[in-house]
Specification:
Blueprint lengths: L1 E6 L6 E5 L10 E11 L1 H8 L1 H4 L12 E2 L3 E10 L9 E6 L4 E10 L2 E4 L13 E4 L11 H23 L7 E4 L5 H17 L4 E6 L4 H6 L5 E4 L11 E5 L4 H11 L3 E6 L19 E2 L2 H12 L1 H19 L4 E5 L2 H12 L7 E6 L1
Parallel strand pairs: 10-11, 10-13, 11-12, 13-14, 14-15, 16-17
Antiparallel strand pairs: 1-2, 1-4, 3-5, 3-7, 3-17, 5-6, 6-9, 7-8, 8-9
């Protein structure tokens, strides 16, 4: 098995590693060949919060101080020791950036299963579920690449949209999304824009982004206003809800200093600007971290699994029609190119209009 691994103590150091894996499957184990996976800024958030939120624990490696950052993709069953999981079936889910994965299947249903390998038992259940493409309301072969790029991000965006709506948007007149060109911010802005048109809400959706990404962010067509970080002083002083995807503490301090008492809610989501996560300036409103798995469980319990999936699938179909025209998908089986893309995203230089898919 080949795996892309990262030095947890120096995240700029990466290597491809060959691992010897025992494929004599035990009862209920399944060997998946990973067909493809996406790599986006979302994965950088997994890297930078890996110790704090447990992301390194999903796919351990024997090499000291190194880890496998989780990715989203599709895997095909090549061996199965479970009578209800057949060779050739395809599953969407959480994978290592590797060629293969052995899972211990439990709770097997027609629509999928849960991996209950010993090291994953105490990790968030939402990340341990694998969905059979034959029974997945999201899946179409034509949009497979878009699914692995946007689906995990879109679900987070969907949950934030619901959360804000349930809280009446904290009575904010402005909703500011930092790192507005990022895919999770884009998806949230699209959902907020659709909700605004449908229900005649009066909030203004403002995208905060870099000078380099300003034109692209405007072209997305879901922000009422796009402002660059250098021009934050032009933000109106109205009741404001901030949804922060950047994770840049210095930026956040300046934003808070400008908004002052007008900041009515501060929602922390990602860490795209990972190099500026230290508190070099004292934040008054540290905000509340939005951990998506908590809200997946919450809304599943509230709506039921089927209704939860239907709501997301319906929103997804509307979103994906527009997104396909905005994003350029770059596919490659070149292992060196994955390293280059990782470094480019890490340095904040990967083009916002591109999305990368590694395909074995």
């Amino acid at each position: 098995m080949e795996s892309f691994i990262i030095n947890k103590k120096n995240i700029r150091e990466t290597i491809w590693q060959n691992e010897i894996v025992n494929i004599e499957l035990k009862t209920n184990e399944v060997l998946l060949k990973i067909r493809n996976f996406s790599f986006t800024a979302n994965n950088i958030s997994y890297v930078t919060t890996g110790d704090k939120l447990g992301y390194w624990q999903f796919f351990p490696t024997e090499k000291e101080n190194f880890g496998k950052v989780p990715v989203w993709g599709f895997g095909e069953v090549v061996q199965s020791a479970h009578e209800n999981i057949q060779v050739g079936e395809n599953f969407y889910g959480y994978f290592p950036p590797a060629s293969h994965l052995i899972v211990k299947t439990e709770q097997v249903k027609k629509y999928g299963f849960v991996d209950m390998s010993e090291h994953r038992k105490n990790l968030p259940a939402v990340y341990n579920a694998y969905l059979n493409t034959k029974f997945d309301a999201f899946y179409t072969q034509e949009t497979e690449h878009f699914q692995i790029i946007f689906r995990p991000l879109f679900i987070t965006s969907f949950l934030i949209d619901v959360f804000l709506d349930k809280n009446n948007f904290f009575e904010a007149e402005n909703i500011i999304l930092t790192s507005a060109s990022s895919k999770t911010a884009y998806a949230l802005a699209a959902l907020l824009s659709a909700r605004k048109k449908t229900n005649a809400f009066s909030y203004k959706i403002i995208g905060l982004t870099s000078e380099n990404n300003a034109l692209f962010t405007k072209k997305l067509g879901c922000y009422d206003e796009v402002i660059t970080y250098q021009n934050m002083d032009k933000l109106s002083l109205s009741k404001t809800c901030v949804v922060d995807f950047a994770g840049n503490q210095n930026l956040h301090f300046d934003l808070q200093a400008h908004l002052n008492e007008n900041l009515v809610y501060n929602c922390l989501v990602g860490a795209v600007h990972w190099e500026h996560t230290e508190n070099t300036k004292p934040l008054q409103n540290k905000g509340k971290f939005f951990f998506a798995p908590v809200y997946v469980q919450k809304y599943m319990e509230e709506w039921g699994r089927d209704e939860f999936q239907n709501k997301i699938a319906n929103a997804w179909k509307i979103f994906i029609e527009k997104a396909q025209n905005q994003i350029n998908i770059v596919c490659s089986n070149d292992k060196k190119q994955l390293i280059e893309v990782y470094e480019s995203i890490l340095n904040g230089k990967y083009p916002a209009e591109n999305a990368f898919v590694f395909e074995w």
